[in-house]
Amino acid sequence: MKRLLIKDIRYVYCMDEADTFLEHTDIYIEGNVIKQIGKDLRIPADGIRVIDGAGKLALPGFVNTHHHFYQNITRNIPVMQKGNLLGWLLYSYGAWENMQEEDVRAAARLAVAELLMTGCTTSMDFMYFFPHGRHRLMDAEFEEVQKLGLRFHGFRGCMPVMEGDLPVKLKEQLGIDASGLIETYDDILEDCDRTFQKYHDSSRFSMTRVGVGPTTVVFENPDFMKELKAMADRYKGLCHTHLHPRPDEMKKCDEAYHMRPHQWLESIGWMDKNVSFAHISRHTADELDILARNGACVTQSPSCHMRLGYPVAPALEADERGIPVSIGVDGGASNDSGDMLGELRTMMYVHRIDGSHPGYGPEQWLNAKEVFKMATVNGAKCLNRDDIGMLKEGMAADVVLFSMIQPGYAGALTDPRGALVYCGNNHLADTSIVNGNVLIENGVFLAGDLRQITEDANRATERILHQVKEKTGIDYAKWEV
Question: Which domains does the chain have, with CATH numbers?
Answer without folding.
Answer: 3-60+395-445 (2.30.40.10), 62-382 (3.20.20.140)
